[in-house]
Amino acid sequence: MFFIPEHISTYNREKNIGLLTYDNKYDSLLKFINSGKLIIKERELFFYKKHLCMCLEELHKYNIFYYFHIDDLYIHSESKMPLMYNFEKSCFVDFNNSEKRENIMKMFAKPIKNKYIPFSLFFFHFIAFSLINNSENRMKEISIYELYDNNVSIFYGWNQDELKEVEHIVLEGKNYEGIFDYYLGNSALWFHWDYVILERSFMKLT
Fold it and tell me: Which of 106, 142, 144, 190 is most buried, by the most CB atoms less than 10 A from its CB?
């Protein structure tokens, strides 16, 4: 099924791709789910999740990281299908020049508003924030174990496997600049984040 967007929020001439944004006059997906209108909740949530997985797969085919956030989803008034709405933190996973690198650094240095992100994405935010707000000469190094312990109660689903994954990233990157570049060079990790956040968001709904 196709929907008519209110406007095109982002257009990339090089790739000839437009990201379509819908009017937020529709109810949010969370509001709709919590309204009690779902007849067979478990079955319908499973269908919604499969639909959104297919949407993410399509975006990833075009090298687009959506940065899934369940708060940014709406429900279509007629079909009752979820709509992806907010693409402000979406980006093309193509960082082949210093300008794109700088833009990504600025975007991920902003405060985190998604409690379902995995620890590796949280650490990427931390690295971006550190590089933006500190010169390399006076940058304070913080233990990843300290970061994990201080924030594990805030975010949903963190585990020891994610901590080990970040240990590997630190060993590969060696310093903040190197770690940031490691993230930029690993597109599979970015797309994996979308699916992890989607899965954890729906786990909290069941």
Answer: 190
Q: Within 10 Å of residue 206's Cβ, how many Cβ atoms?
A: 9
Cβ atoms within 10 A of the Cβ of 199, count? 14
Predicted confidence at residue 5, as pLDDT, reads 39
pLDDT above 60 (res 7):
no
Does this model's pTM top 0.90? My answer is no
Question: What length is written for the chain?
Answer: 206
Provide long-range contacts, Cβ within 8 A and 24+ apart, for 33-39: 33/205
Alpha helix stretches (DSSP H) within 28-97: 29-34, 41-61
Q: Between β-strands 17-21 and 7-12, what pairing exists: parallel, antiparallel or unpaired? A: antiparallel
Phi, psi at residue 192, to the nearest 5°? -60, -40
Q: Nearest CA to 117 among 74, 154, 169? A: 154
Distance CA 55, CA 68 (A): 11
pLDDT over threshold 60, residue 21: no
